[in-house]
């Protein structure tokens, strides 16, 4: 099991989604994915019983939020998903209940809830993903406050556009710690890692050092 990468463009950014399995058996893969991210999108299931399982003492919602913060991902967006399966569907009170409880928990970890966008969504039906959903007319939008300024919006994609890009040390020499090496038939040896400093361009001559 590996991490999945999916790229798309918004009006503002090129976004790479690093999808990592959340299951406890694959936490190593999740750490690999999360450690490379500029922002974490924590998906919380709103269905009856599902949220409670995730936020319970050993639940995955808690574990994933803690992992993200511990690995240095300081920006967070919370997508409250499966709003179509709440009782009744698209319930405002259920969203507010989840928002309150998740806010309390992430505050204990070290996130500032005021800087976190909470967006009620249905991935299955597309509600509030790209466009504001008329099924949740009660949702007036998310707003965040941070020292770099305020931001607001009504959808998940707008929350992605409100991410603050970190400054990257591109002026320094190239440093790329290797995470793994794949041997792919017909292509050859493919080293994998993240550019930590400097710039990598096609045709560059690089030095490998143990």
TrEMBL record:
Alphabetical list of SUPFAM superfamilies matching this protein: P-loop containing nucleoside triphosphate hydrolases
Keyword GTP-binding carried by entry: yes
InterPro entries: P-loop_NTPase, T_Tr_GTP-bd_dom, TRAFAC_GTPase_members
Gene Ontology molecular function, alphabetical: GTP binding; GTPase activity; translation elongation factor activity
Domain of life: Eukaryota
Domain Tr-type G: 1-170
Keywords: Elongation factor, GTP-binding, Nucleotide-binding, Phosphoprotein, Protein biosynthesis
Protein name: Elongation factor 1-alpha
Organism: Pijnackeria hispanica
């Amino acid at each position: 099991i590996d991490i999945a990468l999916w790229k798309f463009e918004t009006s503002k950014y090129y976004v790479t989604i690093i999808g990592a399995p959340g299951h406890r058996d694959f936490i190593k893969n999740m750490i690999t994915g999360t450690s490379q991210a500029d922002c974490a999108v924590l998906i919380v299931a709103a269905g009856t019983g599902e949220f409670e399982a995730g936020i319970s003492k050993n639940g995955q919602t808690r574990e994933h939020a803690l992992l993200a913060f511990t690995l240095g991902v300081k920006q967070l967006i919370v997508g409250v998903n499966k709003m179509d399966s709440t009782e009744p569907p698209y319930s405002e009170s259920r969203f507010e209940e989840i928002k309150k409880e998740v806010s309390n928990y992430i505050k204990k970890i070290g996130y500032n809830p005021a800087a976190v966008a909470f967006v009620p969504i249905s991935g299955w039906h597309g509600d509030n993903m790209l466009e504001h959903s008329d099924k949740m007319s009660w949702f007036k939008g998310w707003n965040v406050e941070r020292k770099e300024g305020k931001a607001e919006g009504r959808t998940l994609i707008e929350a992605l556009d409100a991410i603050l890009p970190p400054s990257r040390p591109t002026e320094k020499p190239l440093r790329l710690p290797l995470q793994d090496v794949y041997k792919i038939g017909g292509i050859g040896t493919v080293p994998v890692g993240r550019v930590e400093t400097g710039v990598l361009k096609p045709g560059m001559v690089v030095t490998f050092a143990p």
